[in-house]
């Protein structure tokens, strides 16, 4: 990956709806070489997809909690079962496995506290092999969906 590829990626992170013509103009290429580079970046996995960033608050999803999960076992089968269950939960916006304690960090977004309590009681509390869960509420998001520094 060279400087021109990084420039293409930077422009697409700013605006994923750019046409190939507009992208080529912004990075200083003609359309055909820009299109070839774009396809190569997609095939190499540097671009994993395109999607719209939807503002949760504008949809009434104003409650965000971080849930720290400590597992009671760390064998592969236990972790796989837990991760599959978490991946199937639509309110989990992000799930990360961590080193140390806790084992996982889950980012949950719901419309309000009662909705979060329902998710917690009906879904989170039933996750397999969980020893302990601790939650904290997000007061304010300072940085979100920042483009990668290239």
Would you kindly provide a written description of the structure presented here, covering whatever features stand out?
This protein has 150 residues and is α+β, with helices and mostly antiparallel strands. It folds into 2 domains: 41 residues, Winged helix-like DNA-binding domain superfamily/Winged helix DNA-binding domain (Arc Repressor Mutant, subunit A); 81 residues, Alpha-Beta Plaits (2-Layer Sandwich), CATH 3.30.70.920. Helices cover 37% and strands 20% of the residues. The chain is built from 5 helices and 4 strands. The protein has a 4-stranded antiparallel β-sheet. Strand 2 and strand 3 form a beta hairpin. Helix 1 packs across helix 2 and helix 2 crosses helix 3. The longest helix is centred in the first third of the chain and has 13 residues. The model has no long low-confidence stretch (mean pLDDT 95).
Q: Mean of the pLDDT scores?
A: 95
String of helices and strands: HHHEHEEHE
Assign the CATH class of the largest domain: Alpha Beta
Number of H/I helices: 5
Helix content: 25-40%
Radius of gyration, in Å, reads 20 Å
Order of strands side by side in the largest beta sheet? 2-3-1-4
CATH topology of the largest domain: Alpha-Beta Plaits
> What is the CATH H-level superfamily of the largest domain?
Lrp/AsnC effector binding domain/regulation of amino acid metabolism (RAM) domain
Please summarize the sheet with the most strands: 4 strands, antiparallel
Shape: elongated
The percent range for strand residues is 15-25%
Q: What number of structural domains do the residues give?
A: 2
The CATH architecture assignment of the largest domain turns out to be: 2-Layer Sandwich
Distance from N terminus to C terminus (CA atoms, Å) equals 11 Å
Number of strands: 4
**Segments where pLDDT lies below 50 for 5+ residues?**
none
């Amino acid at each position: 990956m060279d400087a021109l590829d990084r420039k293409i990626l930077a422009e697409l992170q700013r605006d994923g709806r750019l046409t190939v013509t507009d992208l080529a103009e912004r990075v200083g290429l003609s359309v055909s070489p820009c299109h070839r580079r774009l396809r190569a970046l997609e095939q190499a996995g540097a671009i994993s997809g395109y999607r719209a960033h939807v503002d949760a608050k504008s949809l009434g999803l104003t409650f965000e909690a971080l849930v720290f999960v400590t597992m009671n076992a760390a064998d592969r089968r236990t972790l796989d079962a837990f991760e599959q269950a978490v991946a199937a939960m639509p309110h989990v916006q992000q799930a990360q496995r961590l080193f140390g304690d806790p084992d996982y960090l889950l980012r949950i977004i719901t419309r309000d506290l009662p909705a979060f309590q329902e998710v917690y009681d009906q879904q989170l509390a039933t996750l397999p092999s969980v020893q302990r869960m601790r939650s904290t509420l997000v007061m304010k998001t300072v940085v979100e969906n920042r483009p990668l520094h290239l």
